[in-house]
Structures
1.
Amino acid sequence: MHGIPGAAIPTFKPLSAMTPASRRPRSNDFRYADERLRFVIRASGLHTALFARHIGVCAETLYGMLHAGAPMTPEIVGRIHAHYPQIDPVWLLCGPQR
């Protein structure tokens, strides 16, 4: 084994010990609001900050929804739908209806 003799081997926390919502497994069925928002942003072809500017909101608002678990609001959904009328606002706000 190469390395410095006596050097400590780093230890890592298991993924289950990490708290951010982004650490949960992807569902691939759009049941989470951040997955639906991420899909719409990718479909727009814009990066997140430019998408936020395009719909008229602060980029931190979208980053909060994508990474910090902030809830999707009807105002944001309305702004997205105003610029992208092909996006169903009910789907964006509530997810797939079963």
Note: The chain has five helices and no strands.
2.
Amino acid sequence: MNLNYKEVDFTRIKDVEIPSEFYNRLMTGVDSLDNIFGGGIFPGSTATLISDPGVGKSIFSLQLAEYLTKKQYNVAYSSGEEDIAQIVAAWTGIPVN
């Protein structure tokens, strides 16, 4: 049986250098959300927002994205259950730039 085994190099945790920018967390402007993230979001990280249907996840996400883009952060929105038309329809009427 051929398992296509390849040798792998491991790095010990104590040998990993953490870049200084990881200590400068992104503050969302929502104190309770920043607390959930342990003092803000790590730069370059991804967050998943999960809750029951209809509680405002999409609206909250748009408002947070708008706030962060005004602070010159790059923001991406991804949905695994809504297509683009549903997302735009959910956001109709919300003032965004």
Note: The chain has three helices and no strands.
3.
Amino acid sequence: MLRKINISGVNIIRCRMEDISDAAGSDLITARALGKYNDLLRWSKARLSQIGKIVLLLGRAEAEYLLQNAEWVWNEPKIVPETSARVVLIGSPRQNS
């Protein structure tokens, strides 16, 4: 997709998070087909840049659960058009946590 729309300066890594060792300073982390959100948050916190964000596509119930995580600052979940239960949740680690 990035090649088709001619976006540069993006590094897409396609593998399991456990297999990535060089993602420090990432501005954006996203994942799909994941159920271990707390593991992903812990992993991401150590790898996001100071302005970095995590973007998740998940169910409403999962989003409500993650919104309670006080170590992260979350934007209001956005409903995915033409779905009734999927949302996009964007967040960043709370500073000094």
Note: The chain has a mean pLDDT of 84.
